[in-house]
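Fig. S4 source data, part A: sequence.
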Amino acid sequence: MKNEFVIQIDLDQLDDFFSPFNRQKLSSDLADYILRQATAAPYKNTITLKINIPQKLNHKEQSELTDMIREYFGLSVSEQMEMNRHHDKQMLLVFLSGIILLLFSYLIPVSIIIIDDLFMIAGWVGVWETVYYLLFVNYQSRFRIKRAKQLSDCHVDFYDSQSIKKG
């Protein structure tokens, strides 16, 4: 069984949950807060959001709000994966261009020495940029995807402050 990591969220009003531009979308401020808090959670843990709202919500409302959270972070996963696919294609082109330029610099005799050196430098830059992307940029992106997946699968508990005061 996975350990649980709890993120406590206290909202002053239900409107704090929604985007000011579209009440069908999660507030970007709330999503940023959730994401910042989730950075402390180990990747192996499940995340539970405990949301305190000053009013009682029925099951349908709770389900809709939970779906909003999961949709927000699920779309983040999809967007990041699409960006990675696009960037991977670009890096493949950069790598192939670098290899071709290196081959030109070593195999094709050029009467002007400076052109030979420029091909070699540009070729190594292309190869290095690809290695840098694979080792550092892509690595960070995979962690962002993991975190967003973790949040899109989170458990959400709602409670209202009135029921706590009464109990």
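Fig. S4 source data, part B ends here. Strands lie at 4-10, 46-53, 155-160.
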